[in-house]
Amino acid sequence: MSVSEFTLKLSPGTILNVADCLVMDPNSQLVVVVTDESLLEGDTTIATFDPECSSEQLTDRVYIEEESPRDECRDGTLVVVQKQDTQGRARLELLSVPVDKSKCDNDSELNILAISIAVPIAVATVVVIILVFAIPSLRNKILRG
User: What is the maximum alpha-carbon separation in the chain?
Assistant: First the structure.
């Protein structure tokens, strides 16, 4: 590994503000740590820099490290894009891009439906059992037949 190779890891919510040029060796990388909370906060800017003198294809050198698994079918795929602002500065932004729903299986929707039906039934059963054992007259009628 040469001195010009490096990995810079950005914590959730951190923005790398470079005053001038963002120059990276082809073997270097920028790792962005993502949590569910950091995505909910709204600011998805990863870095700001001067695009005139910066390395090309910086988005290819940014890697996303997710701390918890995400449902890509529901939440989309995280990608890094470069955008230009009105002052001539560039910024790298983290975006959630919807995936093709045909590539997703519908098991997750089926699981949610099954859970939404099973939980109320289980709760009702527990309530009935508690009532039967809590009320002596009801308990005698049911247990004696």
Answer: 88
Query: Tens of pLDDT along 88-111?
Result: 899 999 888 888 777 776 666 677
CA 58 – CA 23 distance, rounded (Å): 9
Q: Domain range holding 127?
A: 107-144
DSSP E strands, the chain = 7-10, 16-17, 29-34, 45-49, 62-66, 77-84, 90-97
Residue 27 inside a domain? The answer is: yes
pTM given for the model: 0.62
Which residues partner with 33 through β-bridges?
Answer: 65
pLDDT given at position 42? 62
The answer to whether position 2 is within a domain reads no
Query: Exposed, middle or buried: residue 3 (CB in 10 Å: 0-12, 13-18, 19+)?
Result: exposed
Pairing of strands 45-49, 62-66: unpaired
Q: What angle do CA 99, 30, 4 make, to 5 degrees?
A: 145
Cβ(34)–Cβ(64) below 8 Å: yes
